Amino acid sequence: MSSTPVATTSSTLLELDAISVRFGGLAALTDVSFSVNPGEIVGLIGPNGAGKTTAFNVACGFVEPTEGSVRLPKSGLTNPQPSQLARAGVARTLQGVGLFENCTVLENVMAGAQSRPGGRFWTSLLGLPHGQKELKAEALSVLDRLGVADYAAQMPTAIPYGIAKRVAVARALIARPSLLLLDEPASGLDEAELDAFAELIRGLRSEMGVLLVEHNMDFVMPLVDRLVVLSFGKVIATGTPSEVRQNPAVIEAYLGVDE
Amino acid sequence: MSGTFKRLAWVLGGLVAAIAVASIQSGTDAANLTKAGAYCIALVGLSFLTGWSGQISIGNSGFMLVGGYSAAFWTLHHPGEPVAISMIVAIAVSAFVGLIIGMPATRLRGPYLAGMTLAFAVALPYVPQSFAVSTLGGSQGLTITPLSAPQWFFNLFDTNNTLPVVINSRFTAMVSVVIAALVLWLMSNLFTSKTGRAMRLVRDNDVAAELVGLHLGRTRAQAFVLTAALSGLAGALLVMVSGTASPSTYEFGFTFSIALLTLMVLGGIGSLSGAIIAALLGVYSLQITTWITDHTGLGPDSWVSAKLPNLAPNMENILFGILLIVTMIFAPRGIVGLATGLRQKLISVTRR
Amino acid sequence: MIANILTNRIVNDIAGGTAQGVIIGLVALCLVLVWRATRVLNFAQGPMAMFVTYIGMTQMDHHANFWVAAAISVAVGFIFSALTEIVIVKPLYHKAEINPIVVMVGMFTLLEAVASAVWTNIPRYPTAPFSSINFQSEGNPTGLSPLSTFQIGAALAIMTLVAILFNYTSLGLKLRASALAPEVSKLLGIRVGRLLTLGWGIAGAVGAVAGVVISLNPGGLAPNMLDAMFILGFIAAAIGGLDSPLGALVSGIVIGVVMQLINDYWNSNYADMVAVVLLVVVLMLRPQGIFTKNSTRRV
């Protein structure tokens, strides 16, 4: 590993450092800082319009911070571009399912390994083998692990929503990420599916750190190790779910919206 | 791996068939086949760009012009060198121009891209006409010695008193078909490879494609360079056979860009076999039109033609215009799509 | 002193270039109207305008006067464009981006071929009620003629009408609403489908005005008369940002003047190329054009 310009003593996976984002005159995020460590499940929550999605998109490089920086200490990247994430060991799922609609489920999962070396232009053009057979087998085994191998040959538009969400996770997992970002994993799932999905995420903890954006509290609270609560673009609380639950600022933020 | 062999066998089979055709048909058909080979190469390039990387170009005639002129220029200044080198030069130069045009193109959405490439194709013929007239020949263009059959080829065919011109056309037809077959084989590899998949991912969902590590601009530019290179090769092939590259060459004008788009859609966007069908359709469009008008009572002797004497020369475009609109609305996957649909229907009927 | 300015070569070029530029802007405006309403770039805009111009202007052969013929062109332009939207464009909404492009390219081929079949390729020269001889100032020609003054006036009048319609009438508000937020508009009880058709109709009428005005140019009325103008109109619209009517007009005038100067001082063959180079440079720097706001990507 090359030496990193970022001075970090811990093995932090992702660090948002004093991020501010302004769209025109509108402050979407103000001085937001948090980090994700290996083996940790972190939930990013907050009332609607609190800036959860913006914070998430800043972490992925889709939104450029006006101030502050995003760091991936393991790969030494600062403010990474979205297309650099995969190589830096970061995988992300999208809101909804975000699959490639005109590719089969199997191809969707194989796509997750697109950033691996090999199979460049000339190899492809001349039809030389570039590990696609092995990759196919690997993709099938990941699908199998998530219990959806039966759907491998189907098109994403033809499979149930819950299955498609699992396929999206499979696509993220085949890249063997050290950090997994989940964008609203619970949305659109029914009770049974939610439990199974929570179990699945918990099972990943040994291999990677997980950051998820979610507004379904029943799903988040029992799942995560740590919460970051946003309100009006600011971090108003961090801590374990039980700590956060008793934080008066958090209660006020949520009640304020309910009124 | 077996897939690769299957495709190879398929392409080889077509190759053998085409060569057989080239050696028995008339000189005109051989000349048409030569053109069809070049058209096929250009169509595969466009089909790849549109069908696989989801970009559109109405400017490929411009790249054909670049390729054609490059080949002619190189041949003029390096007489006696192998034809293949001229072709490779043409591919390299047009790929480079494709990169320059592709750089802004990769940041543009469909309509902007279509308009920009069209503007490029419209403006490009003015370049050799107005700039460097002494080196590019102005409106006269460049003239080179056309590709001619070697002695062994004449010896091979001289048994039944065939005209030398016809034998020569057969030779160029074969050269053209072999190059087209090679291109088809390479592109069929690409279609199923990791690089080909990258194009489809970017087309399907650009956000997700970035997240699996693809650089959108680079991937799109790659497709653009490839389509430019193939168009350039097609243009070079046409010039090597005809011996002239001029601003008024039909295939170098923007109307041919429109014709390519039309043919590609009719054949089937993104399909290799569609490109073959489309190429033949393009070469024989006049004959097909005549056949249709003769059999629908719209021919030169009909009452419509008596009233509109200028109808006959425009019939081809009227027909293709209507076909293009109807195809896009009712059968967006073209002839190949219709054939696949029909086959699946037949299979499901017989299984019952 | 004033006479010197009026007959100065550069001033003349600017005046003549503005006359052509306003027309380019008018063609660009048609593209912008259709784009704003339905997110379709109408590649058949040129041939559609050409076609309806023929239908109107050929009435002059049957003793209709110029104004009646022009009015017929505009009315037919409205109807034809609205029908086109209903019959061949409507089925393509919510399809892949390239589908409407391809269909309009088909329309392009079809209309030019039909026009050539019916009216032949020999240009016609509708007689304008205005002289094309430039105004004189102390015996020297200025850059404008009664005809070009009429052309500028007609183009600007139409643009003003469109601006008033869109910005100051309730119909204009509905038109904008159904283009920008069709779902919300539907909930508000606006009949979005009809308004999109109306948007195409208006663009068709504006296109017919452009066609009539251009048919008075020295090139006359011919099946391919709007091909070059369409390209320039597209370049103007794209530089302006496809969404901005004002951008279309301003870039149209800039292109017209620049081309006139190149024509006069350099070589007419270079003029078209310079327009394309301008487009490539602008799109490289600002892919969304100059006059539109930067839009953020949705993730």
What is the topology?
The complex is a heterotrimer of chains A (259), B (352) and C (299).
Chain A: E1 14-23, E2 26-36, E3 41-45, H1 52-60, E4 67-72, E5 77-78, H2 82-85, E6 90-92, H3 105-111, H4 121-125, H5 132-145, H6 161-173, E7 179-183, H7 191-204, E8 209-213, H8 217-223, E9 226-231, E10 234-239, H9 241-245, H10 248-258
Parallel strand pairs in A: 3-8, 3-9, 6-7, 7-8
Antiparallel strand pairs in A: 1-2, 1-4, 4-5, 9-10
Helix pairs in contact in A: 3-5, 3-6
Chain B: H1 2-24, H2 27-52, H3 60-77, H4 83-105, H5 110-123, H6 126-130, H7 133-136, E1 142-143, H8 151-157, H9 164-192, H10 194-204, H11 206-211, H12 216-242, E2 244-245, H13 254-267, H14 272-283, H15 285-295, H16 303-307, H17 311-330, H18 334-351
Antiparallel strand pairs in B: 1-2
Chain C: H1 2-7, H2 9-38, H3 45-57, H4 66-89, H5 98-119, E1 136-137, E2 140-141, H6 146-168, H7 170-180, H8 182-187, H9 192-215, H10 227-240, H11 245-265, H12 268-285
Antiparallel strand pairs in C: 1-2
CATH architecture of chain C: Orthogonal Bundle
Widest β-sheet, arrangement of strands of chain C: 1-2
CATH C-level class of chain C: Mainly Alpha
Put simply, the count of helices of chain C is 12
- Structural class, from helix and strand content of chain A? alpha/beta
Number of helices of chain A: 10
Largest interface: B-C, 48 and 51 residues
CA gyration radius of chain A, whole angstroms: 19 Å
Query: How large, in whole angstroms, is the Cα Rg of chain C?
Result: 19 Å
First CA to last CA of chain C: what distance? 62 Å
Total discrete domains of chain C: 1
Number of strands of chain A: 10
Principal-axis shape of chain C equals globular
Characterize the main sheet of chain A.
6 strands, mixed
Query: In whole angstroms, how far apart are the ends of chain A?
Result: 52 Å
Average pLDDT confidence of chain A is 86
What fraction, in percent, of the residue positions of chain A are helical? 25-40%
Portion of residues in beta strands of chain A equals: 15-25%
Helix content of chain C: over 70%
User: For this entry, what is the oligomeric state of its chains?
Assistant: heterotrimer
